[in-house]
Amino acid sequence: MTDTTSPALRTALAYYQAWTGHELDKAMSYIADDIVCDAPVGRLEGADAYRGFMDPFVQILTGSKLIAAFGDDTTALIMYDTETVPVKSAPGAECVTVKDGKITYSRFVFDSAPFDAARNAAS
Amino acid sequence: MTDTTSPALRTALAYYQAWTGHELDKAMSYIADDIVCDAPVGRLEGADAYRGFMDPFVQILTGSKLIAAFGDDTTALIMYDTETVPVKSAPGAECVTVKDGKITYSRFVFDSAPFDAARNAAS
User: Fold this and answer.
1) Helices B113-122 and A113-122, packing angle to 10 deg
2) What pTM was computed for the model?
3) From CA B61, how far away is CA B90, in angstroms rounded?
4) B73, closest residue in chain A (CA to CA)
5) What residue of B is the nearest CA neighbor of A96?
6) What is the ipTM metric for this complex?
7) What Å distances lie between residue B19 and A28, B63, B72, CA to CA?
């Protein structure tokens, strides 16, 4: 499932290993300055906006497990489960476009409803 | 991105084409009787429960677009965007395990929050 002959997948997995290892600086080294990311919160443009989205998530992350990962020259698609402080199982999927070892576009899918519910319960 | 040498991907794509074409009976022909599906609504067990989950979604589906699709002998991972009556862009990802041409396990990720919001706004 992890075809490491795919250059895009190598980048996607290095990025995944970094952020799930709480190494956000290292993770951001795989993100293009002009990344565009379509996520449940809407479109994020630029590395600063992307980091602002990932940082709070990495802080509540307590575990992760790769479910599947595939890729070709320019595109990688991965799915994983995460465990977070408010939500015990929060699976996500990312389809990323990679150019020169950097993620230039990301389509990010996860269920934001359990996070909304946890936030509402806490407030 | 659509490596049709993968038997699992062939099944996953045939399934995807059927349900996005509103052919639910044909789609269900690719689903194992004892399918287990982990989705935002929780775990679904058996083809009847799975059909009960898909049927209302197919009824509100107005469009779909495959974003990426990969697979190997036993596993396929696809991501797509859907357009539905209440939610204009509802991307999803599925990681499926395929045995003898039937999907026996599915991990289903999508953002259920916009559907909850639409339901609340309508009630």
Assistant:
1) 70
2) 0.95
3) 10
4) A1
5) B68
6) 0.94
7) 38, 11, 22
